[in-house]
């Protein structure tokens, strides 16, 4: 018996043990791989379509099974699997899943399978770490062939659609505009999404964008809809609260763009998410938060409400911070920073010291200065929110951060 995929000088008994080990763990590896794929790649999470998970599991199962067959039997052609992958790649055009997402999915599955195999191999004395390493190395080459076939199928499917006069990008632009309507019709959205090859998620959010660097185009996540054609550019991001999604968005959008994300909504409520995201983006400009981080609208509600009426805020600053404003810098800035921290930490000197990276005795000295300026009014519960808003607004316009 010849073993097509692995070069070795081991006796047949050792290779037979390896094949037995692979077959014994194949089903578990497939199940665990699908779980990892769904957890780490939200585009593959489809709780409203159990049939899709079955297809994903079938694909992973067959891929694992074919790999084992190719180790054991050199006459089992790889072309049969590659043909299936080309067909699957063509189908994914309508599903809105890019080849890169499938490539990531297969690599996650391969990593999970190899880890399980390595753990199980300790039970078989004839199977060495070197042999497992050979399997892992061959898996990577095997994946390259599979993903190349899927990419080719995807390109063929896309070409067929384009030859038929279907402009997928234009369909997606129309879908974005429909999703951002105040009260979109769910049936219309479903039809537009089908035409645009975009899976409607259970929940989504809008990310409002402002360009900082004219030479860069934002990196759009594979399962997001691009609204860069709009006068106020944005993205519609599926399932933004999933594990690691916020960090991934910060990484993808933080280069050259300021990004603000609105609250997560049902797809019929994305106009609200868009409005919040825009207000957060406006706040970021006013407060000079145009950095690489993702501005989360829900984290800045009081200030977003306040800056809608700048005249009232100016009056609030003058009425509540008068004694402070009469001081000169840098004392004025130091005491403003300390008063804000005191209000947010209930005047606990130790907490304020930790927040400002100061000695507690320094904080207590500043607290006495603040009390001499304002009197006991700074401890009045009904004035706490007013003082915080006034301080944040004044500091944003004075020192360029919140």
UniProtKB/TrEMBL annotation:
Ranges for the PucR-like N-terminal domain? 17-180
Query: Residue limits of the PucR C-terminal helix-turn-helix domain?
Result: 335-392
Which InterPro entries does this UniProt record tie to the protein?
A: CdaR-like_regulators (IPR051448), PucR-like_N (IPR058663), PucR_C-HTH_dom (IPR025736), PucR_C-HTH_sf (IPR042070)
Put simply, this protein is called Helix-turn-helix domain-containing protein
- Species of provenance: Actinocorallia longicatena
């Amino acid at each position: 018996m010849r073993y097509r995929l692995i070069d070795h000088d081991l006796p047949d008994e050792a290779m037979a043990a390896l094949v037995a080990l692979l077959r014994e763990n194949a089903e578990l590896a497939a199940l665990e791989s699908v779980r990892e794929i769904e957890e780490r790649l939200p585009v593959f999470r489809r709780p409203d379509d159990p049939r899709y998970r079955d297809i994903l599991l079938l694909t992973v199962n067959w891929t694992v099974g074919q790999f084992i067959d190719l180790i054991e039997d050199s006459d089992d052609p790889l072309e049969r699997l590659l043909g299936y992958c080309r067909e699957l790649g063509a189908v994914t055009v309508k599903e809105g899943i890019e080849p890169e997402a499938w490539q990531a999915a297969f690599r996650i599955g391969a990593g999970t399978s190899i880890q399980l195999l390595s753990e199980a191999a300790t039970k078989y004395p004839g199977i060495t770490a070197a042999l497992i390493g050979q399997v892992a190395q061959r898996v990577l080459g095997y994946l390259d062939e599979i993903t190349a076939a899927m990419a080719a199928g995807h390109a063929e499917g896309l070409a067929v659609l384009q030859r038929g006069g279907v402009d997928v990008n234009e369909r997606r632009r129309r879908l974005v505009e429909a999703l951002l309507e105040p009260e979109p019709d769910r049936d219309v959205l479903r039809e537009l999404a089908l035409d645009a090859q975009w899976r409607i998620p259970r929940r989504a959010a809008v990310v409002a964008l402002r360009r900082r660097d004219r030479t860069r185009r934002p990196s759009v996540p594979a399962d997001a809809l691009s609204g860069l054609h709009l006068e106020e550019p944005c993205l519609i991001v599926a399932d933004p609260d999933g594990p690691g999604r916020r960090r991934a968005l910060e990484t993808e959008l933080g280069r050259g763009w300021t990004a603000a994300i609105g609250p997560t909504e049902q797809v019929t409520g994305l106009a609200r998410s868009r409005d919040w995201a825009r207000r957060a983006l406006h706040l970021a400009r006013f407060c000079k938060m145009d950095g690489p981080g993702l501005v989360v609208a829900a984290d800045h509600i009081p200030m977003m409400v306040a800056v809608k009426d700048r005249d009232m805020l100016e009056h609030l600053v003058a009425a509540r911070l008068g004694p402070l404003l009469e001081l000169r810098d840098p004392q004025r800035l130091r005491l403003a920073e300390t008063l804000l921290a005191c209000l947010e930490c209930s005047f606990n000197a130790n907490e304020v010291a930790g927040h400002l990276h100061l000695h507690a005795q320094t904080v207590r000295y500043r607290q006495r200065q603040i009390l001499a300026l304002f009197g006991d009014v700074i401890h009045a519960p009904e004035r706490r929110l007013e003082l915080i808003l006034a301080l944040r607004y004044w500091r944003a316009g004075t020192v360029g951060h919140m």
